[in-house]
Each structure stands twice: as structure tokens, then as C-alpha cells.
Automatic annotation (TrEMBL):
Source organism, top-level taxon: Bacteria
Designated name of the protein: N-acetylmuramoyl-L-alanine amidase
Pfam families, A to Z: Amidase_2
Enzyme class (EC, first level): hydrolase
Keywords: Cell wall biogenesis/degradation, Hydrolase
The protein's Enzyme Commission number: 3.5.1.28
InterPro entries, per database record: Amidase/PGRP_sf, Amidase_domain, NAMLAA_amidase_2
Length: 225
């Protein structure tokens, strides 16, 4: 699942203010500067008018995550989007929704894909979700959770692969992201993470083939319009 309370990209909190104040009081210029830079990354960005319930992927169900689990932004104007990060929830769909709605969790992904292929969006792609455990990767990526457990290959269903591939293909098309393993990565590949998802049973060869096919079909449909 998305990063836990160790995530380095969260909203500015009381503890952060205390730490920053302590650093300044100590008169340690370098420490204070580093702390201020870290806290700056947690501040919310511009919040342009949004249509309530709007989704970025047609057919997705909208269920809002807590604002404590993401940062308002205006991507790709303020941050370029050049990655899709694949996660596995390590739990049920219902448990993932529950924790993403919990502000104390301080982590959430943009999307959840269920075993039956249904897709829920919880954070707009405009905004920075706290899902990767790495501030830079949070700012530049869209995170997709998949219902199930990394040690249960039966959780990775045909419907899930197909729906997720269409979702990733759409994201890649919107932001000009190359469909390759440098730009579509697993949570385990994010620098500094201690997560192992999507795990050894995730079939990358199959998945990337499906993403390429879905993007090709979408490109053909556009060309025929």
C-alpha cells in the first residue's frame, strides 16, 4: 500500500513547526535551512475550482481521500508528471478506502483497482498524493493501488490487469509518458522505500504488453475521430 507515517511528504503539522522552531533556536543555520526546505514541501499548493465528483478516468467511481493524505496542486503546471507507480494494497478494497479517508494515515494513492476490474479514484491527478514515500516521486507520479496481497497470485486477476492497463495507458497518453519500465514502475523501485509491492507475482511482461495495446487502441480511436 502507499507509504505509512514515514512518508516524507505530508502536510505541515504541529510537530514540524516545533522541530523547525527548535532548529532555529539552536542557531544551526544549515539544520534550520534543511528543515525549512522539508516543511515547504508539505505546504498545500493552489486549489483551483474543482467539479465535485469529477474523475480523470472515465468510468471510475469517485470517493474522496482525506485532505491529510495528499497536497493540493496544479499538475502538470507546477510539477511535471512522468511516472506511474504500481502498488498492492496488502488488504481489501474496503480497508484501503477506509485508511485513505483517515487523515491520521497520512498516505493515499490516486486510484484503487479492484479484483473485479472496477476502478475508484480518490485523489485528482492534479494533486500530489502521498503514496511513494519519496517527495520527488510523489510530485512527479500518479499512484495506482491494486486490491490484494503480494503473496497471493490469485488476487491479481485478468480483470484487474486489463482495467489497470487501460488506466495506465490513459495516464501515459495524457502526460506524454513513455510506456516502458523506466516510467511505469513498482513501489519497490522508488528510491528510499522499504516497500516490496507489487511483489514477485506481478507479471510485468504481461502488464506492459496490455498497457501498450490499450494505448495503441486509444491512439487509433482518436485518429479515426
Amino acid at each position: 500500500m502507499g507509504a505509512t507515517k514515514k512518508d516524507t511528504d505530508r502536510h505541515l503539522g504541529r510537530r514540524g513547526l516545533l522541530i523547525g522552531g527548535a532548529a532555529a533556536a539552536l542557531g544551526t543555520a544549515a539544520l534550520a535551512r534543511d528543515e525549512l526546505a522539508r516543511l515547504w514541501g508539505r505546504l498545500p499548493g493552489p486549489r483551483t475550482p474543482r467539479v465535485e465528483g469529477a474523475v480523470d478516468f472515465r468510468g471510475a467511481l469517485w470517493t474522496a481521500a482525506s485532505s491529510g493524505n495528499f497536497r493540493w496542486a496544479q499538475r502538470p503546471d507546477d510539477y511535471r508528471i512522468d511516472r506511474v507507480i504500481i502498488h498492492v494494497t496488502q488488504g481489501s478494497y474496503q480497508s484501503a478506502v477506509r485508511v485513505f479517508k483517515d487523515p491520521s494515515h497520512q498516505a493515499a494513492a490516486h486510484y484503487i483497482v479492484r479484483k473485479d476490474g472496477r476502478i475508484t479514484q480518490m485523489i485528482r491527478e492534479l494533486d500530489v498524493a502521498f503514496h511513494a514515500g519519496n517527495r520527488s516521486y510523489n510530485e512527479r507520479s500518479v499512484g495506482i493501488e491494486h486490491e490484494g496481497f503480494v503473496d497471493r497470485p490469485q488476487d491479481l486477476t485478468d480483470a484487474m490487469y486489463a482495467a489497470s492497463a487501460r488506466l495506465t495507458a490513459g495516464i501515459c497518453a495524457r502526460y506524454g509518458i513513455p510506456v516502458d519500465r523506466r516510467h511505469v514502475i513498482g513501489h519497490v523501485e522508488v528510491p528510499g522505500t522499504d516497500h516490496t509491492d507489487p511483489g514477485p507475482h506481478w507479471d510485468w511482461k504481461r502488464y506492459m504488453k496490455l498497457v501498450r495495446e490499450a494505448k495503441r487502441d486509444a491512439d487509433h480511436s482518436k485518429a479515426e475521430l
